Amino acid sequence: MHSGKLLLNMLAFELLLTGGMTARAQQTLASVGATSCQVVHTVPSEGDRLFQVGDYKNANKHYADALATNTNGRTAFTGLVRSLLAMNLPNDALATAASYTTEHPNDATAEAMMAAIHLRLGEVDDATAHVNHAVNLDKCNPWAHYEASLLLKLSGYFARAKTQMDTAHRLLPDEPSIAVAWQRMQVKDSAGCSMTTATEHTVLSMIPMDDVQSMRMSGADRMALKMIVDRATAEQAQHGSTATPPVQLQDRPFNAMGLRMQIQGKHAMLEVDTGASGITLTRTIAGTLGLKPLAATHMEGVGGEHAASGYWAHVSEITIGDVTFKNCTVEVISDDSRVRVDGLIGADIFREKLVTLDFPAHELQLDPLPLQPGSMATGAMDRYIAPEMQDWKDFYRAGHLIIVPTKIGDTPMKLFMMDSGAEVNAINPTSARLVSKMNVSDRGIKGISGTNNQVYRAKEVTLTFAGLQQTVENIMSFDTNGLSDNAGVEISGFIGFPALRHVVLKLDYRDNLMRVEYRPKTQ
User: How far from chain centre, in Å, is Cα 493?
Assistant: First the structure.
């Protein structure tokens, strides 16, 4: 999708895959052209059971033993590759698939697994080529449809992705992983709130937060901030304006942006975080609001410890300027020290709008998205590139994660996460070693998953993304496997707030489009 090659490949694949399908065929079996596909019923193996409960190591052993004895060989091979990927061993999976392909040339399942491996490695064009090859070899292969669905969804073709997953599920209805993925696609993608705005064009003021303020506000700090904001608001009102000006807390460089809001009538400030989803609140403010746990949850992110525990809760109303959210499901984190101020607000909560994060001007703007052809239809829809957005840049999206094709030096394209909530830019050691010397860092990284002290620094790395280029000295480097697991593709690093503080970032979550404009700091 990032390149013309990928987009053409995906479209060509989709035409190849769905050509000639009839309504009757979709109800009973998958049909492509004149080829009828047999629905295969299977009994999950012990390896499948272990895989589903997350015991990938023992599942891998069962699959390896079955493959060695040629017991249901193709199924065992599929399980073996997928368990290796689940264990973060993509290179071992690649070697396994290459060996199997040598023994079984022109095998559609082997090609589908090669697609899975290259997708996990972040090599999307290669993954697409293998899926296309798999379909050419066998249009009835369920794993080809499954992998095609993942690629299409990542690229913003949600309707086509659902069609492919429906087909995979019809062809192999008893396969647990396909069944789970199919069930998830029946649920509407949502950030957990119903949003309304009083005007079509909305401007919200973002508050810069410096290193000290952003970690934790004392009661005195909060009162001082409230007095500054209330005074500024009153002065604006005297001049006939309802807009609230941005508030610069201190003159020192800041590493995050916050939004003031009212949650069920109480003041709060949350950090604007494109790496987060929906609303995450601290235990302290949740207690102040009297929120009651609905269900336990855990939150994973940057850090070297363990996932943060917490719970889901219901919030009846949140107001930010003229934006109102009703009936929100929010996450509450048990350890307040793992987030800044009162919590996080993911930019995806505004996904029904065209989101502009104007960091130099300290403003968040919301505008209507371009009218999409067939927008009155219900259900999943494919991305649409409006005429006025032809020069915008594509991005991949895994849930709320914005994944940007990024060049580091002269190496092949990598995938980075765009994360305005990250106080540093970062790269994983494997990628960093391709372009720079490494040194042990004297500073750890702190995030939702605690503190990671196994951190290095790369001397100098040049990042090129969305038409911009930035050279970063002493860039932080640490293991990003956790992020990659969540995204389903290799995340080689993230573009944090230091790379974004002087840009205007426009985001179209519906169509996987962005525009990044460099703007020097306003005075």
Answer: 13
